[in-house]
Design brief:
353 residues, alpha+beta, Beta-Lactamase, 2 domains, five-stranded antiparallel beta sheet, 14 helices, 46% helix, elongated
């Protein structure tokens, strides 16, 4: 490897070099800009390359030579594409050619570089149009971000592991609820599935879709604190028993509030019996004071509950359940949520399973 940077001659991207092309490694290349400019470029922490429209590298600084593990002489006779990962070459070339033509291009992007020796490297590149000795060219600045990309990958894997762990905890809690209240076995799972479908239909971001689905999986966790006699009573509940049943939303909040979920699960659970007009419980919240996720859960919960068997009544059926939410939209249930839910069943053939 040569010390310092230099001028190199090469041929077009992706083509074999011309025979007899001799490299011209000359530190005097920067002399028109003065010694200070030469020192600036050659001591830069990032890779700096000048490339003309034909793909010839007309200048590389020492950092670029270090990254590619090549000498200026070697780069002069090596097609530039050989240092770019095959899967990234087309994208890089397209952006290189668009700049001088004044077309839209990605101002900053990442791609992989294959050094002559050593492991693959990731770089983040930005470039500007310049005139190099009277010809159009690009001045390219490439930062080695390999360590950063590796850290990002590790972080993504850690987050995925955490989400998997959270999912396992959610399923365990859900099973605990259904063990206490066997008549609603599968209820939370079906509500979760419907919540996910509604959230997607409403265009919520994937992370919030996941959040409402997770909250729905344990929205009745507070029933763990209720007597089994109330949960499985085959007749209508008395006013006192119904008052006890209503405590499950707040009890669920108390159980979940200290668990650091990636989403506001405890608040979603606490609010899933609130209603648009303020007639719900436990806080009597209304309108926009209710979390959007809780409004989705409220509709999904009612639809699934009405369509399913309960100890004190037979299943009402999905048709009646959908009629109920349509009749009470804007009064008890969020209008946009109801609209999305009805569209799922009427237009997309959604079924509770």
């Amino acid at each position: 490897m040569c010390e310092g940077g230099g001028i190199v001659s090469g041929d077009r991207f992706g083509q074999e070099p011309r025979q007899g092309v001799a490299p011209a490694v000359r530190y005097s290349a920067m002399r028109d800009g003065g010694e200070s400019l030469r020192q600036l470029l050659e001591n830069a922490h990032d890779c700096i390359l000048s490339i003309d429209l034909e793909g010839r590298i007309t200048y590389v600084n020492p950092k670029a030579l270090e990254l590619t593990a090549a000498s200026a002489e070697e780069l002069a006779v090596t097609p530039f594409t050989e240092v770019i990962h095959p899967e990234d070459r087309q994208f890089v070339l397209e952006n290189h050619l668009r700049r001088p033509r004044g077309e839209f291009f990605a101002p900053r992007y990442r791609f992989r570089v294959i050094p002559k020796t050593g492991p693959l490297r990731w770089v983040e590149l930005s470039a500007v149009r310049i005139q190099w000795r009277g010809r159009d060219a690009t001045l390219n600045f490439a930062a080695d971000v390999t360590d950063w990309v590796g850290a990002e990958d590790q972080l993504r894997q850690t987050l995925q592991n955490l989400r998997t762990a959270v999912g396992s905890i959610i399923k365990t809690l859900s099973t605990a609820v259904e063990t206490k209240d066997p008549y609603t076995a599968g209820h939370q799972r079906r509500v979760s599935q419907l919540c996910r479908a509604i959230a997607v239909a409403m265009g919520l971001p994937p992370d919030r879709v996941e959040g409402v689905a997770m909250a729905a999986m344990i929205h009745d966790i507070g029933k763990i604190g209720l007597p089994a006699e109330i949960l499985s009573k085959p007749t209508r509940l008395t006013p006192i028993e119904f008052s006890l049943l209503q405590t499950h939303a707040h009890t669920g909040y108390d159980i979940l509030k200290d668990i650091e979920f990636p989403w506001p699960v405890a608040h979603i659970v606490a609010q899933h019996h609130e209603r648009t007009n303020g007639s719900g419980y436990p806080e009597g919240l209304a309108g926009d004071d209710i979390l959007p996720e809780a409004r989705i859960l409220a509709v999904a919960d009612v639809v699934e509950a009405m369509a399913s068997y309960r100890p004190y009544r037979p299943a009402v059926g999905i048709v009646s359940a959908l009629e109920e939410i349509e009749r009470r939209r804007r009064v008890l249930y969020d209008s946009e949520v109801v609209k999305a839910c009805l569209r799922l069943f009427h237009e997309q053939g959604y079924r509770l399973e």
